[in-house]
Request: fold
Amino acid sequence: MIEFSKPVIGYAEVWPMLLVFGVACAGVLVEAFAPRRVRYATQVLLALVGLAAAFVGTVMIGLDLNETAGGAAKGGITAEGAIVVDGPAIFLWGLILLIAVGGLLLFAERELEGGVSAFAGQAAALPGTEAEREASTRGLDHTEVFPLMMFAVGGMMLFPASNDLLTMFVALEVLSLPLYLLSGLARRRRLLSQEAALKYFLLGAFSSGFFIYGIALVYGYAGTMEFGGINEAISNNTGNRTLLLAGMGLISVGLLFKVGAAPFQAWTPDVYQGAPTAVTGFMAAATKVAAFGALMRLYYVAFGNERWSWQPMLWVIAILTMLVGALLAIAQSDIKRMLAYSSVAHTGFLLTGVLGAQSASELSSGEITSLQAVLFYLVTYGFMTLGAFAIVSMVRDAGGETNHLSRWAGLGKESPIVAGIFAFFLLSMAGIPLTAGFTGKWAVFAVAMSAGAWPVVVVAVLTSALAAFFYVRVIVLMYFADPVGAGPSVTLPSVLTAVTIALGVAATLLLGIVPGPVLDLAAHAGEFIR
Amino acid sequence: MSTEPYIVLSAILFTIGCVGVLTRRNAIVVFMCVELMLNASNLALVTFAKANGNLEGQVGAFFVMVVAAAEVVVGLAIIMTIFRTRRSASVDDASLLKY
Amino acid sequence: MIDFPWLTTLIVVPLVGAVVTAFLPSRPGAALPKQLALLFTTLTLAAAVGTATQYDTGAGMQLTETHTWIEAFGASYAVGVDGIALTLVLLTSLLVPLVVLASWNDADTRNTKAFFALMLALEGLALAVFLAQDVLLFYVVFEATLIPAYFLIGGFGGENRARAAVKFLLYMLAGGLIMLASVVGLYALSASQGEPSYLISNLAQLDIGTVEGRWLFLGFFIAFAIKAPMFPVHTWLPDTTAAATPGTSVLLICVLDKIGTYGMLRFCLGLFPEASDWATPVVVVMALISIVYGALLAIGQDNMLRLIGLTSLSHFGFIVLGIFVLNSQGLSGATLYMFNHGLSTAALFLIAGYLIHRRGTPLISAQGGVEKVAPVLAGTFLVAGLATLGLPGLSPFISEFLVLVGGFSHAWWVGAIAVSGIVLAAIYVLLMYQRTMTGPVQPGVETVVDLNRREVGAIAPILLAMVLVGFFPQPLLDVINPAIETTMTTVGVQDEPPTVPAGTQAEEDHQ
Amino acid sequence: MSVLPMLAPLAAEGAEHVPVVDPSSADGVFTLMWVVIALPLAGAAILLLGGRLTDAWGHLLGCLTVVGSFAISLAMFVSLIGRADDDRQVSQHLYDWISVGGFKVGADLLYDPLSALFLLLITGVGGLIHIYSIGYMAHDERRRRFFGYLNLFVAAMLVLVLAENYLLLFLGWEGVGLASYLLIGFWQYKPSAAAAAKKAFVINRVGDMGMSLAIMLIFVTFGTISFTGVSEAAGGAKESTLTAIGLLLLLGACGKSAQVPLQAWLLDAMEGPTPVSALIHAATMVTAGVYLIVRSNFIFDRAPDAQTAVIAVAVVTLLWGAIIGTSKDDIKKVLAGSTMSQIGYMMLGAGLGIAGYAFAIFHLLNHGFFKANMFLGAGSVMHAMDDDVDMRHYGALSKMLPITFLTFLMGYLAIIGFPGFSGFWSKDKIIETAFVDSVWIGILATIGAGITGFYMTRLMLMTFFTQKRWEEHVHPHESPKVMTFPLIVLAALSVLGGIMLLNDWIVDFLAPVVGTPVHHETEVPPIVITLIILAVVAAGVATAWFTIGRSEVPRVAPTQVSVFTRAARNDLYGDAINDTLVVRPGTHVVHGLTTFDKSVVDGAVMGQASATGGLAQVFRRWQNGFVRSYALSLLGGAILVVLALLVVNLG
Reply:
């Protein structure tokens, strides 16, 4: 009989995450009990303080991490082996929290819609009915978006920090479910928003079906769900390899779906387009960060000894993803769909970094590691994506946001600063030097090249050229084309959106010119704990 | 005891779920098929737990059930709004977002 | 003064100028941004002259500054100057103020301060390209130059500017990204042999395998071939020059495109000597095709700006030829050619720009008889044209002849084909001159006024420089030669000795 | 050394030693060598850059600089004669021009008997023509610029003949080409003038191509391009190499000296003002090809095949030019054809090797005198006839323009080779030497002399004799003194040029440069050959007298003429040949390439771009909006992933 002992959670290490969850729960309570007029302010303040505190906590924990594994890694496993708080996890936490702050500011923006937020006044009210009109005249807001977002952030923090398959699954669902809802809450173009939510939900659920079945198979192979244990089982080579491979494949499907890799990318354009722009920005940036963190932990830790079999698979996926993303983006005429495909292409580049994993013995001193490169890329990607979508939310006409590209013509004349910033983000996404996009690209290409994946790098380079085309097209439209009709107009946002954009610009510029500190931080984070 | 029949069964259930998602138009049915896939996983988990002689799989099955329940909450909410707006639960009707 | 950071100053001054110009408020057409641009470019010229005075011809790479930049990438902020770089720095810093002067009123109806700020930014980045001693730094500034160039073409050009700008940018990006693969490959290679480093001096020590070397070489070469440009990746060139303002074209063709040939010299030869040698036959043939093809196309053009653009295709053929024949005449000639082509083509572009500005059309068929009404314009245009066709006494002759000698030493047929370029050059230059400047005064031309002082002032230094270098090229060659010798040592080639050396015969006669 | 056996037969044949250029450093008056060039160059710079400020006195400055150069040249010449035979080569090093690796070229000047004669010719005749131009161009508002160009020409020509190496020679070579371009197109508002100028330059460039290649080959072979170094080492080179160098130099010479097949520009070049035709296209520049070959004697003497080629070109050209001259009505074009033909004689002389070099130069100098004389005379006639050049509008001018007529007559007698006149001595010597080489060449050259007699007589008759055919409003008058003075001086020289042959002075004088000829006996005595030539010339003169002098000259050229006349009028179809073989195919190539560039080269890139766009449009359709098809692709992806894993493992 196993003697019962109180589980050790290690609050000292995981409290920032718990705090976020706590804030989310508190948000639900606020929603239930606070009077309507103070709800918005309370929710925003609560979430902001919660995220800030969590961020401070993350930094403090990060400074305190003990070195393990001979100095190669830092931190430790806690919560009965379910959660691991190591360097990369802390790094990702910090990043997710920063992006969440930016996302929160976008969520809280009320200037653009003339005093109300971008979310449906009353989601349950049917579009075009009296109820909806009433909700909008009364200036109703769904302040539930804030707790929903906090739950998602909590899930995102748990995702890359989970140390076993089950925790990972739970984290996946915790981060996904609120996002499904958030996607459907747009104030304008309700039909599209709801459709996006439905598609996202059905496909998400479908993919998590694969994910959990994969978990079952891997569990069947290894007899344990813990990553370390799985790795050990692989090195001992016990059990039925078909189970392992099939399980690995199915788990990959779930993760690759989340990061939006081809051929699992189908949901991205539809959801990115339909969801409220603030949600799209947050989701595009933060989900990718969390999912790549989890992906790498799974591949590097659980399947680390099986590298030679998943690397070729990732080659195929990465190449496919880059091609699909770059090619289809060319054909888009909606800015959000174009950014969605661009994000698919970025997934491809990130995968290029992931597949560049090499064991420590293969690396020479001072050489950039795959983990370091991908973490760095995530930083650059996160900020520029958030910033870009923030800009998208500002370009509007009478019917709300004008996402059709033709309506962006002549923006450079109308509002040189906004156009300039957007052009800067686009150039960064295209990977032009002196922007963060370039340094990120360089890093992932370099690790892939070091690992001998030169064909992937060549494809990556070619698709970058292809991708440049559609980014440049937007710049041409903004600067060198004459406006059609009344032309686009830029609604001046409140300081909230402005701060987010400023954050994005600053990060993109600094990481382009002096990426050293962040790269060092990523290097300092060390390896994953096995 | 051989685990094979259970695993085969679970695989068959999973496949049925899959095919169901692909073929059915009604969002509720599609969603039920996803649930079927989750339950196929549960069966596999429990089977492997028995075979491996530890409890992790069984615990996992519980978690999956909880998660599935949560999914239902969210899913039904979304499907309901769509249905109320469109007067249709057919997933094929929701196809404005394309190309 | 010994530790004064000359090279950083060179890079920073125009960049600061760009920022200042861009952020000081002014209306379109205001004089302030123009004066600022002139001030900062002149300061840069002063810094370049200062650098030249500090330069010691025999001392190889010098005035170097090295600071760690991105440690994780092995990248440093490393700048230095040798004979090749100094030549191009002088060219750049000389041309830009003149371009500013010549383009004084080109952007009056548009965003004037942006126009001049972009020019300054372009200058700073171009100088950084020539001075970079670190491959990543080079790559970064190399690509960064595209952005100001792109906006200069697309924002301030004429008809079809947006299309031309996109074409330009995409060509360049394609080349640049291919090069990125090689840049990244160099990192991988360098990391596999110890601490990763991007310093050219360290990379040159690498033990690069034959196959790897050739692939990496290709990545660099393709990018430079597009940049230079060479047949068959040249089609962006005439479109761009036709759409951009002449001043922009000068910056693009006379300064930026030199990066391509400079890169071949510095990186293709410097880092991949074996591969360069291996590629020589193909590159030489491509260069020959470029020479003849560009010249033939130029003959058939009716648009002056396209024509001048295409002549550059021919000239870049010569430069590439000089580089890849791998002998001292070819290499020194090619380096000098970069300088001289910058001068002569700049003069052609600017003067053609004056005429186009007055006539409102770049079409040759719309001109005629300009000499009668504007003799100074015609005269300077003729001198620039004669320089372009390689008339002895003007500087381009020296370099063209050196390249031809180099080509001939490489193989007689190379020299024989390349030399046909001088006939074709005579045809396209003189045909253009004949059709635009001579003959009866065409309708519309009679109102053309002769050049004013500002315009002459922008051209005169170029013409003067061409005559001076034409008669006294040796000071410049003395700067170039040692750097070329170093390059040849790196590649491991030597000049072929003459078959019947003079001097030895006499001794035998005496015996 | 393998060269010795090769040299042996030469040595055995006679004492024909190819001299080596071995100059001593300049001292005394020779240190002023550079000033000879610098004076006109400074003049050109002042006149061209000075603008209208120099309008008033520009022409005087232009004349002064050239006269100054002539004075120095004369001083140097006197000083040179005072030196010993083997000490008549002087060089002056100005500065290092180009030095790259083994390619070292100095700005070095070489003054030797050959250069000395040329210097006198250029500055002397040039000075006279400058003076003449003061009058001729008096009414042109751009006279100052004209003098600037003339000065530029003189400077370049002096560089050409004073250069100590091939590249510096090439500098002068191209410089005179530029001056020629500028001066042919001086009245560039006339489209014909502008076109002629361009044509001259472009055809010359074809020759320059040969010249450039020759220099490269010389460098590759000898590692130097100085005359000193090459002449010293030439004996060691393979004959085939030397032949190649020789042929390439010949190509250059053909361009500059308007020899077949690069002859077509010279007739068009008459678009320039007449003094230009006299100076550049008769007396000096066009003879640069002869100079080049004579200067490169150390190469040609060792490359008999190249010499044969020179002779072939020369003979064809001397007949070609002469035939063209017979049918032209434009007085300047007759003279141009004649120039072409006379240069053919010089080339013939140069092609004959050591035996002929001196005579080639001798004829060159004489031709410089009499042809300049005649061109200026023609200019004087045109001056009188309101710039009409058509001889059919002349007639009976001998009374109206007595000085012009008399001086022209001297030139006429000189060119047809009237005994005692300069042309008689030099042409006779060349034909005589040709007979030694080959009877056929001698016969052809003699025929050429006969034709010369015909067309020059025709010119004389149509211009100065026969009946008046003047245009209305034309009142012929003699030219001012400033124009007749040069005519008189040149006429005197045309008569007296033969003095240079006294005691074989010119042959001995040039011997340090071109070698001492061994005297070969002809099969018939020289006097017989001379008599035959005179007879043939007399026949030509007589034919002209009977066909033109005795009948009425129509004012409009008859159109019903023989095939030969028509061919000659069309310059023997030289332009047509160029057109068919070069210009038209060239135009087609250019147009074809332009299309090719747009559709194939650019089309490939652009097509690729649009193909990518099209592909994107196709794939875009896959995103059809139906969630179930997305699910299908997800399932497909899952299968792909699992299969990929399995394949890697099992395969």
In short: Chain D touches chain C through 67 residues (CB under 8 Å). Residues 1-15 of chain D have pLDDT under 50 and may be disordered.
